[in-house]
């Protein structure tokens, strides 16, 4: 049975099981009546009408004095302010404590081709340290998302921190928690993002939408210093399409279904390197979503819900400096859950069972050959070394099963909430066969008059070329599993004008075998009418990465060499080096990374029925995973050959984050306004960017450089500089949404500002200071940028229950330079661009 047929069978089987489970649950509930459960499901379903979407909506909603870290991007805001394409994480960039990947505006063929979500950081956490959920089901990758270079022989290309992608048109709300996070949430040191899909509507209807963009609708910015590089490096030609279809089916008065299909595709024109004839070729990405969602309202007290999402993603990648090396990367996400909610006078409860499976397959024909250009065979290339072939097939998967139970009840004139979670994760990466990489150290004849190639030897060409060095990367099957348990409890009570919420979360996982207790405390004091001071102190423990557990099971690497005898006969391969996997003998003896947080906020009412808030967050990320290498190389005692430099994960990584934000929202008639400005600083020891960044604290403290008129250590320099990506020091956002002419015209204007970066780099010069030579480090500024986005939706047709809207989305309306950083190989930045689309609703 093929992979896609298997997934189709899974869809059918799950749908049948979900339907049977709903009926069974309803029957049991009838025998044991309780009051109501979680009403969020019912409320959201009632609020997803198309009419509501055609009202002006603020960019995000916030200002809860108790949940001071919660922001909600509503369905209306998603519908009106999305920038085109299917990147759901772009919706987060207007929030004050969220930082986006600064490289997203670089113009390269790979960037224009990718339609995957953008990486993001919350409150100084790494981009892989967030708890990402889709309708409360984890979609967070536990694999290594820091690597995945297209030239890596053991790592998958194009991985992100999300295992499942959804289309923005399916969203009902996006809930973001950046601080003061309840004890019911765990497995993060950044923040929590829950993409809530919309509920089925009560009446029959369907929606169809389509949109597109191509290179004629994208203007590019070019700095003068890159002008010469750009002459032989034109901007990419591309096309992007999005299509969506969804239908709401009220099966009975109590059972409602939502079915949806969406597809996004990108096609980009590439050019082979000049040494490889410079011919053009096309690569593409395709992202699809299949959704089946059901809501059953058994009574006013009981609701049940089931959902299944299948999200395949395919990517083509052909390197421009090699031939016969097209890589096909298919990643599939399959997720589902069954949930039952109830509310009663004495107890409200929620039960959910879910699973999430992601799989990535790389189809890349090996082996790889590096031919000398003087070879008669390599007449298709003029480079010194001519590359042919791929890096071998690869398979990767992660499967999560989760069961959760939560409840809340009145207690001592307050509310007591509690819950538990059980989860099992299995992750694997494998290659079925050994992959070979052949290289030549010199021309093959090696002083002989005739070369006789062994039969079926692909690395030998008669009378021409012999490749004499071979790297063997053995096939492998690395799999690990992980059990996690979590218990939490929380109590909230009003004491006069003070609202106090305190909680504890106890968690354990089987790989590191650590028990972690995370206290959470939040106090909101209404010291004036509708004016609050909120203080919080919380600890969060991170999500475990299984990257090192997988890498520890990689096989050793071997290098072989051969030659030619006087008769021209090729000699047998001889083992030259045997490199052991330095992680294979290491046991996990690590603490779980954690983050201690202190936050304060003042919230007060303002003019235009608005709210104003000043909020500060201090985060101390500790016990972070980083890589340490030994100071010296050793000879492997088992093989006596290859020198080895040991490396290992340690808990010596540290990140400090300080952030302060001013936020305001208000409305006037048919206009909604948002504005915020955020100052932040993020520093790490050694400027480590991820858990594979090498840390050498002794060297950083003992190596001195000259900067700003004085001699300082490298560690002091890192503290001055701060991180460069996901860490803009000043950010601001202003939004204005309006609806006009009886909701026939909707406009959304948004301004985003990113302050100037100061990057500190080695100038290349030296200075003699008090008789000692020091490298001179100097500032290099990355200019500030301001971008204005403008979306227009116009209703061109309306009759009874039907309407059609035309959409134009203009990103970077003023055609400013985003200054995200460029290189000589990718000298362009994204200027003004357009998306056009049409939406039809019945």
From TrEMBL:
PROSITE patterns: TONB_DEPENDENT_REC_3
Protein name per its UniProtKB record: TonB-dependent receptor plug domain-containing protein
Entry keywords, A to Z: Cell outer membrane, Membrane, Receptor, Signal, TonB box, Transmembrane, Transmembrane beta strand, Transport
Transmembrane segments: none
Source domain of life: Bacteria
Domain TonB-dependent receptor-like beta-barrel: 350-813
Family per record: Belongs to the TonB-dependent receptor family.
Keyword Ribonucleoprotein in record: no
């Amino acid at each position: 049975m093929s992979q896609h047929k298997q997934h189709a069978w899974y869809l059918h089987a799950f749908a049948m099981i979900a339907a049977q489970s709903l009926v069974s649950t309803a029957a049991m509930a009838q025998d044991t009546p309780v009051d109501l459960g979680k009403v969020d499901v019912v409320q959201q379903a009632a609020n997803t009408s198309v009419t509501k979407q055609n009202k002006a909506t603020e960019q995000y909603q916030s200002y809860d004095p108790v949940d001071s870290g919660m922001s909600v991007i509503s369905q209306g805001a998603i519908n009106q302010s999305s920038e085109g394409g299917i990147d759901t994480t772009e919706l987060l960039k207007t929030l004050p404590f969220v930082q986006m990947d600064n490289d997203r505006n670089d113009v390269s063929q790979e960037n224009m081709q990718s339609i995957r979500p953008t990486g993001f950081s919350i409150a100084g956490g790494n981009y892989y340290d967030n708890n990402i959920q889709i309708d409360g089901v984890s979609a967070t990758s536990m694999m290594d998302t820091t690597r995945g270079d297209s030239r890596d022989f053991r790592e998958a290309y194009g991985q992100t921190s999300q295992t499942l992608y959804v289309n923005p048109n399916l969203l009902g709300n996006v809930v973001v928690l950046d601080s003061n996070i309840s004890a019911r949430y765990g497995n993060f040191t950044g923040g929590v993002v829950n993409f809530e899909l919309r509920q089925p509507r009560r009446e029959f209807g369907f929606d169809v939408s389509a949109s597109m963009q191509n290179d004629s609708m994208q203007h590019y910015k070019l700095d003068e210093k890159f002008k010469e590089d750009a002459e032989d490096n034109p901007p990419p030609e591309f096309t992007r399409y999005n299509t969506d279809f969804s239908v709401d089916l009220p099966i009975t008065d109590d059972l409602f279904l939502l079915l949806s299909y969406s597809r996004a595709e990108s096609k980009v024109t590439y050019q082979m390197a000049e040494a490889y004839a410079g011919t053009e070729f096309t690569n593409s990405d395709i992202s699809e979503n299949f959704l089946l969602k059901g809501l059953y309202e058994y009574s006013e007290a009981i609701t049940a819900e089931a959902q299944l999402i299948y999200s395949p993603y395919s990517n083509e990648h052909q390197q421009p400096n090699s031939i016969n090396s097209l890589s096909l990367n298919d990643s599939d996400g399959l997720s589902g859950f069954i949930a039952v909610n109830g509310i009663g006078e004495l107890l409200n409860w929620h039960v959910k069972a879910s699973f999430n499976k992601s799989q990535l397959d790389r189809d890349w024909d090996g082996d790889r050959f590096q031919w000398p250009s003087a070879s008669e065979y390599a007449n298709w290339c003029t480079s010194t070394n001519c590359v042919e072939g791929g890096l071998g097939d690869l398979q990767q998967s992660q499967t999560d099963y989760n069961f959760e139970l939560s409840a809340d009840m009145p207690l001592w004139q307050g509310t007591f909430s509690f819950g538990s979670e059980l989860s099992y994760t299995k992750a694997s990466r494998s290659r079925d066969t050994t992959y070979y990489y052949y290289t030549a150290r010199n021309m093959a004849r090696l002083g002989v008059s005739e070369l006789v190639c062994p039969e079926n030897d692909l690395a030998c060409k008669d009378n021409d070329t012999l490749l004499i060095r071979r790297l063997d990367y053995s096939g492998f099957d690395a799999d690990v599993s992980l059990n996690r348990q979590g218990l939490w409890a929380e109590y909230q009570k009003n004491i006069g004008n003070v609202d106090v919420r305190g909680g504890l979360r106890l968690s354990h996982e089987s790989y590191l075998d650590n028990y972690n207790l995370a206290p959470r405390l939040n106090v909101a004091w209404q010291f004036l009418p509708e004016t609050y001071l909120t203080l919080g102190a919380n600890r969060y423990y991170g999500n475990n990465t299984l990257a090192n557990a997988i890498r520890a099971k990689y096989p050793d690497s071997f290098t072989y060499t051969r030659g030619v005898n006087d008769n021209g006969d090729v000699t047998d391969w001889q083992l030259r080096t045997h490199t052991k996997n330095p992680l294979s003998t290491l046991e996990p003896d690590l603490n779980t990374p954690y983050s201690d947080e202190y936050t304060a906020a003042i919230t007060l009412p303002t003019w235009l029925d608005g709210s104003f808030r000043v909020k500060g967050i201090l985060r101390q990320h500790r016990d972070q995973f980083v890589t340490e290498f030994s100071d010296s190389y050793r000879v492997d005692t088992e093989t006596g050959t290859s020198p080895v430099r040991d490396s290992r994960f340690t808990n010596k990584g540290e990140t400090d984050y300080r952030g302060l934000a001013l936020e305001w929202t208000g409305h006037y008639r048919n206009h909604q306004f948002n504005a915020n400005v955020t100052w932040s600083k993020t520093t790490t020891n050694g400027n480590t960017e991820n858990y594979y960044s090498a840390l050498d604290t002794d060297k950083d403290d003992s190596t001195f450089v000259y900067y700003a008129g004085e001699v300082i250590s490298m560690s002091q320099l890192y503290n001055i500089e701060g991180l460069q990506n996901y860490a803009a020091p000043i950010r601001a956002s202003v939004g204005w949404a309006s609806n006009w002419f009886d909701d026939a015209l909707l406009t959304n204007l948004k301004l985003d500002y990113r302050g100037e970066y100061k990057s500190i780099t080695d100038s290349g010069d030296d200075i003699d200071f008090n008789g000692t030579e020091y490298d001179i480090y100097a500032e290099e500024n990355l200019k500030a940028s301001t971008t204005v986005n403008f979306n227009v939706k116009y209703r061109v047709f309306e009759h009874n229950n039907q309407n059609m809207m035309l959409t134009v989305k203009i990103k970077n309306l003023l055609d400013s330079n985003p200054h995200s950083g460029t290189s000589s190989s990718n000298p362009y930045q994204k200027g003004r661009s357009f998306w056009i689309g049409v939406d039809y609703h019945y």
